[in-house]
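Worked example (supplementary).
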Amino acid sequence: MTDAPKPLSTINAANLNTRVDSEVHGGVTEAEGPQLMSWDSHTRRWVVVYIPLMLFLFVLLFPFYWMGVTTFKPDSELLDFKNNNPFWVTSPTLANIKKLLFDTDYGHWLVTTMFVAVGSTFLSILASVLAAYAIQRLRFRGSEYVGLAIYAAYLVPPSILFIPLAQVVFEMGLYDTSFALILTYPTFLVPFCTWLLIGYFKSIPYELEECALIDGASRLQILRRITLPLAVPGLISAGIFAFTLSWNEFIYALAFISSTENKTVPVAILTELVSGDVYHWGALMAGALLGSLPVAIFYMFFVEYYVSSLTGAVKE
Amino acid sequence: MDASTWVAKRPEPTALARLFDYKPFLIAVCLFPAVGLLMAFLTYPLGLGVYLAFTDTQIGGNGKWVGLENFIDLMEDPIFLQSVWWTFVYTAIATVGKFALGLWLALLLNDNIPFKSAIRAIILLPYIVPTVLSAIAWWWIYDPQFSIISYVVVDQLGLRDRYYDFLGEPWPARWSLIVANIWRGIPFVAITLLAGLQTISPSLYEAAMLDGASGWQRFRRITAPLLMPILAIVMTFSVLFTFTDFQLVYAITRGGPINSTHLMATLAFQRGIPAGQLGEGAAIAVAMIPFLVFATLFSYYALGNRKWQQGSDND
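After joint prediction of all chains, the assembly is encoded as:
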């Protein structure tokens, strides 16, 4: 169908034309859309856009719904689909959450995870700000190669590093401590944050720094008083991303930590709550829900930063 | 004192302040934390990993050099060969699925729809939440007795008379993992491709419409080529992280049933950490490197291509 604008003689051509119209105007201004759209193109839009979109939303969100529903189910409903509607809870209970909070070390894991995430985020941001400043602002011979090397570090995935790193951590005497994680998480946080911040520094006009130089400010004063305050949104983006990635990290935390009380939430839920052949699905789902909530809430506050850092890092 | 003799009094900077204003020194100081961390915990372990692959090191002990023995053993190990094959199959199918569905979702979101930003925010949730925790939810969905999918298909729709045994047989377990991986990957692909779509100027589409291009032609001749650079980068990342995936498989099947779903990463973990054979585990991890190098070069040339397309102002 190469020649779209045909006279409106047949139903087919009419359909084609209204479709073309609705797409042009739908994409640009909605005000012009309705009077050109027929009922036919309305149903078409439902079939082509809204219904697939709803299916996507349903599939992407269902596991979370299922997690939530299971958390509040008493065992009698959980394991009996015949007499209950499994999609809903008729007599919600907090027993699973109570079990999680009081019969396990959940509080402890939460504190450990928080400590590790904050520590490694802080360390990574510090290292990344300085590195990005040196690469983007101090500009020395070969600075772009240093930038590229740091970027290349992002392409080294944790799953090929954890075995030798376990050896390194063991030799440093950090095995089974939170510091093992705080020091190793920067291997994937620093490359990401540095690249994000290089992009951000690039958007700050250099003239501001030149003025300050002429006024006699030192380089470090410029970084502290001019560049950093202007780069706050970039710092927030890098910070929340680093925090989320550290919170979610799994393989290092699984490999370098062995004692129950030093585990992070994702590892602990999988390894401590699954015991024997009988799975306590209620408590497991409560753990999954409570372990996801902090990042989900955090995320809700900073959605725009997440989207911009996610897309910015790829476009860079 | 009159105006001609007045000089601005500026406090003399201390020696330390002067040192920090000396550019080479400042550059070294600024780069030190990042480069130091990466050297100590990335470059050195990477080299150590390659070395370990040629030794018979066990946890807590020093191994001796055994040459290619680990690799020769692996070549005769059916579990390893199966994990290599499955890693490639898993990556290929999951990547195709993620990109087909992710691109579709991005195109849907690029349309003028109500609550666009709210929907965009909700869609990223599977990406934000810890993968292991959502994997546990999938594990529960795949439960042999209380799977909600089986319930709907068998008890509600009556399409089958037996519950699915999702994780008990090799192929159903493999497909279950692929579905979970695609679910986890769609948001990242959709959001990044949506960002790419939004950079395409609407005037190009208007011009094409005036020339009478059909919807497919517009997609084929405008959207696809302009999206290709960002698509290439996103795909490289996606391939890289799917190939080295660990969490989903470890959480849902732990490599079972009968080792049929072991990826190279999970097999490396199983041999290296719980079984304590660091040398053998390292050899499996090192065997992944050639593929990663290939993917990185691919990314580099995709990036280079993009610069060429956008002109020289993109440094």
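Two points are worth noting when inspecting this output. The two ends of chain A are 38 Å apart (CA to CA). Chain A touches chain B through 104 residues (CB under 8 Å).
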